[in-house]
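Practice problem 4.
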């Protein structure tokens, strides 16, 4: 008798609860096929340590970046446009924007820090 009750309870959940679980997973499908134009933009402040115009990279000793949950560190970043490197030199304190996520965001803007 007890086993029948457990089986009946499980069957009820499977038929009533399961469709709503699957429907919740389907909600995320509305973003499929869309471009990455909604990538996260983060902001940082740091000191220029080095630049490589041939590789389109900049090395920054940056303060913590809250949006990425990063502590202060020195990193080399790709820049979205080599022209961003023309107005900065090693030792400059700068503010910068990063686009992307993970450990490889790209610097999309750089300006003197205020």
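Answer key:
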């Amino acid at each position: 008798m007890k086993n029948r009750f457990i089986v009946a309870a499980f069957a009820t959940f499977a038929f009533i609860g399961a469709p709503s679980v699957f429907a919740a997973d389907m909600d995320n499908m509305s973003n499929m096929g869309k471009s990455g134009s909604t990538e996260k933009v983060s902001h940082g402040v740091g000191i220029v340590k080095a630049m490589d115009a041939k590789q389109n990279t900049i090395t920054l000793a940056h303060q913590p970046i809250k949006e990425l949950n990063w502590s202060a560190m020195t990193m080399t970043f790709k820049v979205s446009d080599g022209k961003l490197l023309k107005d900065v030199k090693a030792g400059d304190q700068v503010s910068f924007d990063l686009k992307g996520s993970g450990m490889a965001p790209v610097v999309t803007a750089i300006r003197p820090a205020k």
